[in-house]
Amino acid sequence: MQAPAIVILGQGSLETARRIQQCYPEATIHGLDGRVEGADQLYQAFGDTLRALYRQATPIIALCAAGIVIRSLASLLDEKGAEPPVLAVAEDGSAVVPLLGGLAGVNVMARAIGETLGVAAAITTSGELRFGTCLLNPPQGYALADLEQGKRFVSDLLAGEAVRIEGDAPWLQQASLPASAAARRTIHVGCEARPARHDELLIHSRAVLVAVESGTPGLADSVREALREAGLAQASLACLLAAEQAMADAELHAAARSLGVALRFAPLGNGLAEMAAAALPLARLSTQAGCVIAVAPAPVEVERVGERRGRLAVIGLGPGAAELMVPAVKAELARAQDILGYETYVRMAGPFRDDQVQHCTDNREEMQRARHAFELAAQGRSVVVVSSGDPGVFAMAAAVLEALHGSSDPAWQRVDLEILPGVSASLATAAQAGAPLGHDFCVMSLSDNLKPWATIEQRLDLAAQADLVLAFYNPISRSRPWQLGVALDIVRRHRDGQTPVVLGRDIGRPGQTLRVVSLAELQPEMVDMRTMVLVGSSTTCTFARADGGRWVYTPRWYPTAP
What we know:
Elements: E1 5-8, H1 14-23, E2 28-32, E3 41-43, H2 46-55, E4 60-63, H3 66-73, E5 86-89, E6 96-100, H4 106-117, H5 126-131, E7 142-144, H6 147-158, E8 163-166, E9 185-190, E10 200-205, E11 208-211, H7 219-230, E12 237-243, H8 250-259, E13 262-266, H9 272-279, E14 284-288, E15 291-295, E16 311-316, H10 327-335, E17 338-342, H11 343-349, E18 357-361, H12 366-377, E19 382-387, H13 396-405, H14 410-413, E20 416-420, H15 425-433, E21 434-435, E22 441-445, H16 453-465, E23 469-473, H17 483-492, E24 500-505, E25 513-518, E26 531-535, E27 541-544, E28 550-553
Parallel strand pairs: 1-2, 1-4, 2-3, 4-5, 8-9, 9-10, 11-12, 12-13, 16-19, 16-20, 17-18, 17-19, 21-28, 22-23
Antiparallel strand pairs: 5-6, 7-10, 11-15, 14-15, 23-26, 24-25, 24-26, 27-28
Helix pairs in contact: 1-4, 2-3, 7-8, 12-13
């Protein structure tokens, strides 16, 4: 099941939402923009947000009246078996009402949320009320073979038919089923591949693991053929197992996605059979179609099999405002186990769940931070390295890649590494001012901590000669009080004094300020380390805004020579 979305309309619901989030740690709290502070994500329109989540099959926990949710989703209700769980929860947590998704586990969610909030969930499903369980939604580790056949089966039981159980179904031991050894109806639990009989509910136990070799063409089809030869249902497949040296093999990951199962890794040893036996010591082994099949006596606990491929994501938070953080970054933060970064940026990325580990370091410890991130990810953990703005602009992406480039540890090379972009400070400042970066521009850092000042002077002189708009990062600091003045002297050799300059301080954060001055007016004292400086080109224009400020833009055209 996907991580749920907890949708709230007002600030008074946030405490209840946080309590529910303890039940579902990866859930994201969506708050109405302008009315909620402290949500994980903001939205503009309640109905549009619910419909978008529903179309994405995201479980929805809406803290509002049930009627609002029903009216919002009414136009989308179609096939019962395709709907995600949808619940309405009272803002104060006094009521939990499952609305949609009975076959997707909504009642299980309702009971779990009700237990967290200390209230009884309002279950109304007839079969579940009668039998104390939803027969059409077996627990994790089991899969229903045929939904339509299952509906008819439950209808027969509700009409008075008795039932007997074949196979191991421990979750039904406490159910109030009309059991009889002579019953004509059967609940059969097993791994074999066969159609369900008209008088049975067939449930597959996900007790099968298939050990595979990397580099096998058409791997997913090979696994399907191996299961057919062994007489096993594909729905009984719990995971694929491969040698840890093949963690980065794209074919393996594609096969797992095609089969809809997890992919785990372990030492190969003397071959696939030894690897499978070590992963599932009590399993029955066989070899089919080049694969080793292990059938366990109970559903496979995938998290205890081998290890997962570690993941390291280097993310950009944007300038600071939650609404300017891209959705992919928010999703990465939600699933992370470890968050590393400069303490100020880590705090900006929160709030975090109790199970997420924060590793805060000084801003000057970038390489140490990058190496620590790889060490954690190589252990199979999901790790995030945080940057403000965009991670590839004077930030952690380069440090992480440098650490990987310089490493001889094969485990680091196997980590699933991804760089996720963010809104950079220069782009955020430009957007506030208008479009000063509307034509060619140059982004430079005036810090000489990692490059010689002579190089900065040379590049700055050439960029100014080229008539590029200039964006200055790290313009000034206590330890570098003179560099900006020198940089401005260089620019003034090639720019008119009336050239517009945009000064954006803490754009996207509380207390942000934006000023537009001329190059002649600009003094280093107007700037600090948290200021983005955008110096226009010869074509950059300004004009008055209705609010008394000024728009700044650089036209896309360029004057041609006579």
